[in-house]
Amino acid sequence: MDERFNRWLLPPLLALLFLLIVYQYVSPACPGVRVEHRPPASAARREGGPEEREEEEEAAAMPRLAAKFPFARGELCRRVRFDMRGRDVIVFLHIQKTGGTTFGRHLVRNIHLEQPCYCRAGQKKCACHRPGGDKDTWLFSRFSTGWSCGLHADWTELTSCVPAAMERRGCAGNRTLR
After folding, report:
1. pLDDT tens digit string along 42-71?
2. Handedness of CA 49, 55, 58, 62 (dihedral sign)
3. Which of 2, 69, 111, 168 matches a 20 to 30 Å C-alpha distance to 22?
4. What is the reported pLDDT for 176?
5. Catalytic residue among 94, 112, 129, 152
6. Contact criterion met (CB below 8 Å) for 162 and 150
7. Catalytic: 152?
8. Global pTM?
9. Distance (Å, rounded) from C-alpha 23 to C-alpha 25?
10. 161 CB contacts (<8 Å, ≥6 apart)?
C-alpha cells in the first residue's frame, strides 16, 4: 500500500502543493483589487531627470494621510527647561506595549546624573532623590515611586492623582509637573 501511494499519489499531491504556493505569490492580495504596475525603467528615463524620479518615487511611497491633530511648529519644537534641583517633577506615563518598561528602567538606572538614582539589588524600585536632598524626588514613575496611582494609570488618572501622591510621600506642593 505504501509503495503504491509513493508512486502514484505523492507526485500529483506535491505538484498541487507547488502550484498553490506559486499562485499565492503571483495572485493579487485581495480579489477584485487592481494592481498597478510601475512603468519600465526606460520609460522613466524619458520622462525626467533622476531628481524628478526620486521625488516621484518618494511621493508614491508615502501614504497620503490627513493630519488628525495638526500641531503648530512652535509647539513641536519648543524647548522645556527641567530644573532637577528646583521643584520640577517628571511624571512618566507608561503606555502598555510601547517599550515603556525598558525606557522607565533606563530612566532610573542608566542616565548619567549629578546624583543618580539609588537602586538596591533585587528590588524593582529605586530612590531618585534631588541633588543635595534625601527625601524629595524628581521622577514619578513605577520604578521610582511604584504604581502610586494604580496599574497603568492613564493621563487623566495621573493628573488628578500625582499631586496627592507626592504630598503623601512628604514632598512639598506647588510643583511643576512635566
Report:
1. 554 555 556 666 666 666 665 666 667 777
2. negative
3. 2
4. 56
5. 152
6. no
7. yes
8. 0.55
9. 5
10. 148, 149, 150, 153
Question: What is the identity of the amino acid at 114?
Answer: E
- Beta bridge mates, 127: 118
Categorize the per-residue pLDDT at 142 as very low, low, confident or very high, splitting at 50, 70 and 90: very high
Reduced 3-state DSSP string for the chain: CHHHHHHHHHHHHHHHHHHHHHHHHHCCCCCCCCCCCCCCHHHHHHHCCHHHHHHHHHHHHCCCCCCCCCCCHHHHCCCCCCCCCCCEEEECCCCCCCCHHHHHHHHHHCCCCCCCCEECCCCCCEECECCCCCCCECEECCCCCCCCCCCCCCHHHHHHHHHHHHHHCCCCCCCEEC
Handedness of CA 175, 169, 94, 153 (dihedral sign): negative
* Environment class of 45 (CB within 10 Å of its CB; exposed 0-12, middle 13-18, buried 19+): exposed
Asked if residues 117 and 144 have their Cβ atoms less than 8 Å apart, the reply is: yes
